[in-house]
Design a protein that fits this description.
The chain has 349 residues and is of the alpha/beta class. It has 12 helices and 14 strands. Strand 2, helix 2 and strand 3 form a beta-alpha-beta unit. Its cofactor is NAD(+).
Length: 349
């Protein structure tokens, strides 16, 4: 029996593949490589010394998806695949709705066709919208404020409706907070296309000299240093959460939502100063105006995941920063160029 990982070549997907393989699972990876690199899959094989099948295809291609299910004994699906840039979703909402929602509908149709009802869904804390109340618990009313967040919210509703129609469905909705860090080997990590949308890859690209300075959006929030506070979680802790959720959906039915976060908030300046402390690299930054729609403080209440999944985030802020820097310094051009180790090997050869 195999676990199908949609979007398995991406940042969170690749780290989850490593955790699954190391835990003894057989996996099948599907990815259209629109926002990921096939090199990450080779690196997963290097890290784990295990092989797996890879299909370069799209969830919108129903015939190819049916072929994957026909050729493999799929037991459950971990569904990462989807477009994820908030700003881009505002510019091209139809593309996001079609890709994320239609792709998931087709996936669910094929799963039902082949009698596969277990899913771990990659949702997001964006489904909480502009909540002023912290920490954020799963019981809060949901209110996405952009097309990307609405696709996640709509998919959550679709999956709940599926269970109402067919009690065989067993789904975990994992609401991520702010994934950072990388595998401790430095072989896989976050490799965003273009200018990073997220804070930590922006910091690491400044540290490695790809970008000149970091812009900090707002220093007048009601926080300990005026900058925005968020819940940052190490991507390896996040990946471990998927294994715990997978274990649960395999032995139960129903639809449950879980926050995956640390339950602690760190400011932008906390992140900068911690990164400088553990790496010895200076991060020049400039204060800019607040971005519209940003709130001052957002962090998770992860107690439900701890109670029902027996999962808790273990890695602290310094480890998040060190692992992010290890990935970026070993791979200054991401997956596109050779890592420093590979470059040395090429010279020796």
């Amino acid at each position: 029996m195999s676990i199908l990982i949609t979007g398995g070549a991406g940042y969170i997907g690749s780290h989850t593949c490593v955790e699954l393989l190391n835990a003894g699972y057989e996996i099948v990876v599907l990815d259209n490589l629109s926002n990921s690199k096939v090199d990450s899959l080779d690196r997963i094989r290097e890290i784990t010394s295990k092989d797996f099948k890879f299909y370069q295809t799209d969830l919108l291609n129903k015939a190819e998806l049916q072929t994957i299910f026909a050729e493999n004994n799929i037991e459950a699906v971990i569904h990462f695949a989807g477009l994820k840039a908030v700003g881009e979703s505002v510019s091209i909402p139809l593309h996001y709705y079609h890709n994320n929602i239609t792709g998931t509908l087709i996936l669910c149709e094929v799963m039902e066709q082949f009698g596969v009802y277990n899913m771990v869904f990659s949702s997001s804390a964006t489904v909480y919208g502009m909540q002023e109340q912290v920490p954020l618990s799963e019981e809060l009313p949901l209110q996405a404020t952009n097309p990307y967040g609405r696709t996640k919210l709509m998919i959550e509703e679709v999956l709940r409706d599926l269970y109402v129609s067919n009690k065989n469905w067993s789904v975990a909705l994992l609401r991520y907070f702010n994934p950072v860090g990388a595998h401790s080997s430095g072989f896989i990590g976050e490799d965003p296309n273009g200018i990073p949308n997220n804070l930590v890859p922006y910091i690491t690209q400044v540290a490695v000299g790809k970008l000149s300075e970091l812009r900090v959006f707002g220093n007048d929030y009601s926080t300990h240093d005026g900058t925005g506070v968020r819940d940052y979680i190490h991507v390896v802790d996040l990946a471990a959460g998927h294994l715990k959720a997978l274990e649960k959906v395999m032995v139960s039915s129903g639809v449950s939502a879980y926050n995956l976060g640390t339950g602690k908030g760190y400011s932008v300046l906390d992140m900068i100063y911690t990164f400088e402390k553990v790496t010895g690299r200076s991060i020049p930054y400039r204060i800019s105006n607040r971005r519209p729609g940003d709130i001052g403080i957002s962090y998770a209440d992860p107690s439900k995941a701890q109670k029902e999944l027996n999962w808790v985030a273990k890695k602290g802020l310094e480890e998040m920063c060190l692992d992010s820097w290890r990935w970026q310094s070993k791979n200054p051009h991401g997956y596109e160029g050779p890592s420093k180790e590979q470059a040395v090997l090429n010279v020796v050869k």
